[in-house]
Amino acid sequence: GSVKKVLSEIKKLSKDEEKYALFTAEYNRALKEGAYQDFTNKDAILELIRYKSTKSETQTSLAAYKERADTEQKAIYYIVGENENVLKNSPLLEAYKKNDIEVLILDDKEIDEIITPMYGAYQEWEFKDITSADAPKVEQSEEEKKEVEEKFEDITKKIKDILGESVSDVRVTNRLSESPSCVVKDAGDAQMQQMAQMMKAMGQEMPATSPILEINPGHEIVTKLNGLDNDSLVNDVSWVLLDQAKLS
Prior knowledge:
The protein has about 250 residues and is α/β, with parallel strands linked by helices. About 50% of the residues lie in helices and about 10% in strands.
């Protein structure tokens, strides 16, 4: 009864955006933890959380996010990190911007990376981390995709051999329009990464998982690298593609 009363009062407060911004500045993290810990009131608490976003100047609610979304969209996309500016300029956002899809910016990595995947869904919309989700729709047929993969097969294999255990795989991607490369997580490794974060919080370490390096076949660096007969230069550029992707 006390919980329901408190949530009711917070909901009333949320109608005044100026006052509520002061409230969430102090208690947004507690609300995120509450949505994870209290399954009975999960949806009610999720409605009270506010997020930074690629489409809103002020913090947004999940309800407002859904209202702005295209009718065909059935997921809540987000990206997690430690710096808002770095996240907003991530190459991983390129395909989402191109398709006019809003992405939530979660820059409290310590908690967001562990808790957000545990929410599952909000009003039947699944939470999807864009670092492990497939890129949104692009104008490319399966035949065209296969043709590009075959064209760049030798260079992707060569880069993979050069980078070794630093990456779990190297592949061409259609999620990039401006950047030469990006790193993503294997969808199957997402749970392992969450476990690693939890173990780290308890002072224990787990072996780090290697990212997937995706290269942009339309970028000049990649096109010039393909078929280049200079092993030393290919080696140097391969590491630049990986390091630059990690930085961004």
